[in-house]
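Preliminary data (for renewal application), 4'-deoxy-4'-aminopyridoxal-5'-phosphate complex.
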Amino acid sequence: MTPVRENSDSMKIYINGKLYSKGDAKISVFDHGVLYGDGVFEGIRVYNGRVFKLAEHMDRLYESAKTIMLDIPLPKKNLTKDVIEIVRLNGLKNAYVRLIVTRGAGSLGLNPFTCKNPQVIIIVDKIILYPPKFYKEGLTVITVGTQRNIAEAVSPRVKSLNYLNNILAKIEALNSGVPEAIMLNSFGFVSECTGDNIFTVKKGSIFTPSIYMGVLEGITRACVIDISRAAGIPVKPIVMTRHDIYNSDECFLTGTAAEIVPVVRADGRNIGAGKPGQVTRFLMKEFRRLARREGVPAF
Ligand code: PMP
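Predicted structure:
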């Protein structure tokens, strides 16, 4: 029998192989995930009962963990199975999965090697990031003063529990009355937004900052690149400036939670006609089609 979750009270949260209700799912206040944001995570979508791009998310999780020398206490194959099982147990056929590995409880000092038991957590819930209006009419964004972390300090390729860099940029955008921020890298080139990668479209080609501009290697980004190339639209990872954004025909953001969201205004300039463009709308449609068709079945 497939269990169906009636409400969030019947949510089952996984911590290290055991299941807990929402109220009982707890970790130590000495966990370095809490004390220092020391850990890694993934956000994964379930569409139509299938876990989308699961292998890609698992690969990125284990790569992020390797870079920060965090040993995930179970093999990738087993954790992948557990994710599928927890999705099934929670009974949500369209869901957002938050998979977290914290460093575990240790002393109050920084030393991560005092933490012997990393905590592996899986939460299955719903997510609504932006209202439907933004998908129909497009977003207004601004460039903010908070620069993206330099790769030599904390690599943006590590999806770590420490999101303060992005949160500070998000605060700047929200304080200015817009929902999202463009973050530049330390050279002044465009990197990404606070939780999404950025793309432009000009004269039939698609452009996005190269990962070496200091961005998270987004799984939706890769998916959009694949869809575009399969449709014969050239995609070029580039060194992107704000000038490129202002003078593009179209602009959009990509992320697991946001999917593909059009951007129609940046720093007071209309992008193209100031409306979601044709290529963006095509990609939104294709992405949704793919998301509903592909993925690892959980039910
Ligand atoms: N950049 C940042 C900073 C992110 O946090 C995310 C994930 N929300 C993305 C880009 C998009 O990555 P993905 O498509 O893998 O969700």
